[in-house]
Design goal:
By secondary structure, the chain is α+β, with helices and mostly antiparallel strands. Helix content is 16%, strand content 33%. The strands form three sheets. It has a six-stranded antiparallel sheet with strand order 12-13-14-11-16-15.
Length: 292
């Protein structure tokens, strides 16, 4: 990526959590430390089932005053807002789905920091990886003008997706199966989506047990695809034996949930008629050997 680019993320939207108890309220629910959120500094986190399985991912950003913005999946935002409202009980918190009034963009490429400090918008460095640039939340219909004024050229969504896939970073339920996926299979530890020192949150027990007992045998890996890209969910095979399945993909890049030993074994993997070559991104930490 040679220039400063941005693309709108129409599959993402925003929920506002406001009120005096907003930080404490979210602290007991999500996987990261809400007290770390500050102007210009966001966190990435997940809401889990009580059994520690993935429900929703979100960025939590400071919108000023007594409001936090949760950037999450658009199609699943109404259900998430409804669930959060159920948990408010006597907390001094209000939950509002702002999908209709706000939009989300990613600024990346050269000098993404130029997107920080936009008037009338909330922007922050992507807390997962520096290479992912800056996220921007702005009033619907205004983002292109705001970023264009800072020298960013609009790019198709596929350009950002290619960057994300090459880095091996998941995108919500496109890559994490709802009520099944584990955070530590999906990179949330290394990508700064879990805080191990904060207090209890829903699903914490399984997440902690998975880490400290080294129970991870599968991981989401970026893969290079040679041939026709199969549909998400297509099985990945090693010598005819299923060792994982594809998740989201674009062009010759995809993510795949694979058995760790199969992914780093150096053997050719296949999915449909395509050859699949796993890669281990620099940020990923793998055990020396998986448990028998």
């Amino acid at each position: 990526m040679t220039g400063s680019s941005f693309c709108l993320l129409p599959h993402r939207s925003v929920i506002a959590v406001s009120g005096a108890d907003r930080v404490e309220f979210l602290q007991g629910l999500i996987s990261n430390d809400t007290t770390k959120v500050a102007p210009g500094q966001a966190i990435w986190a997940a809401l889990l089932t009580p059994q520690g399985r993935f429900l929703n991912d979100m960025f939590v950003a400071d919108a000023g005053g007594e409001t936090l913005l949760l950037e999450t999946e658009r199609e699943r935002a109404p259900a998430l807002a409804k669930k959060l409202k159920m948990y408010t009980l006597r907390s001094k918190v209000t939950v509002e789905d702002r999908s209709a009034s706000l939009e989300v963009a990613a600024a990346f490429g050269r000098e993404p920091s130029k997107a920080l400090g936009l008037d009338g918008a909330v922007s922050f460095n992507d807390p997962r990886l520096e290479a992912l640039g800056v996220r921007v939340i702005a009033p619907a219909g205004q983002t292109a003008a705001l970023l264009g004024g800072r020298g960013f050229a609009e790019a198709p969504l596929a350009a950002y997706d290619s960057l994300r896939l090459a880095l091996g970073v998941p995108d919500g339920s496109r890559d994490l199966i709802v009520e099944k996926a584990l955070l530590l299979e999906s990179g949330f530890d290394e990508l700064n989506g879990v805080d191990w020192k904060k207090g209890c949150y829903m699903g914490q027990e399984l997440t902690a047990r998975t880490k400290y007992r080294a129970l991870i045998r599968k991981r989401l890996f970026p893969v290079k695809v040679e041939g026709t890209l199969p549909e998400p969910g297509a099985p990945v095979l090693l010598d005819g034996e299923e060792v994982g399945e594809l998740r989201s993909g674009s062009g010759d890049r995809a993510l795949a949930l694979l058995k760790v030993e199969a992914a780093r074994g150096g053997s050719a993997l296949t999915a449909g008629d395509a050859r699949v070559t796993p890669e281990v991104p620099a940020w990923m930490r793998l055990p020396e050997a998986t448990n028998p």
